[in-house]
């Protein structure tokens, strides 16, 4: 996380059900575990689900240092905390110390513009398309925002179907420009909001992507850059 703490109340970003990523200091593997906020008392404690791994709660006890991360409006928010207590009844949860400060890091190096277009995704193996003998399954979703470097997608699919670092090939329309196909997207972040799976994809331009232009030529990357620049200039006017 950033070395600079933002002078803002940590509770200003919290909400019951907010998806979290937890990293434990004693874990030593660098693994991150999914959880969600169950409640908090300002300045005292925060309760979250106790993450499970291989059917068992992840090992931790009072005094374990924890780094909580979650995304909010294009930023990664982080809290340093520690486990105060663990509880298995009436359900497994962790009682964490309420943080006094937060760190905030922008995730977006490129301007993202709102979108509301259908998108098709398909899984690939090690960055390559599936063999012709295999049936390629297309996954339909909704493109929520778009930049020259990536996009946000909403899917009606189980969150377990995806993982950070997963490579997908995507197909969507750049409104007024053309139809993009076979563009590689690396899954950077995953969350569940309102029962829907949200993916943040980073585009990888490997020369296999295509675009059907309407009236002009160029690469997919240039088309995206032009679209975002024009859209941003219009909305800023």
Can you tell me about this structure?
The chain is mainly beta and 237 residues long. It folds into 2 domains: 5-106, Roll (Pnp Oxidase, Chain A), CATH 2.30.110.10; 113-236, Thrombin, subunit H, CATH 2.40.10.220. The chain is 7% helix and 51% strand. It is built from 1 helix and 17 strands. It has one helix at residues 220-236; strands at residues 5-6, 19-24, 33-41, 45-49, 52-53, 56-57, 65-72, 75-87, 93-97, 102-106, 113-123, 138-146, 150-155, 167-174, 178-193, 196-204, 210-213. The strands form 3 sheets. It has a 6-stranded antiparallel beta barrel with strand order 2-3-4-9-8-7. Strands 11-12-13-16-15-14 form a 6-stranded antiparallel barrel. A hairpin with a 5-residue loop joins strand 8 and strand 9. 23% of the residues are buried. The model is unreliable at 1-6, 126-134 and 233-237 (pLDDT under 50).
Please indicate the count of domains.
2
CATH-scheme architecture of the largest domain? Beta Barrel
User: Helix- and strand-based class?
Assistant: mainly beta
Sketch the major β-sheet: 6 strands, antiparallel, barrel
The overall pLDDT, averaged over residues, is 79
Q: Quickly name the level 1 CATH class of the largest domain.
A: Mainly Beta
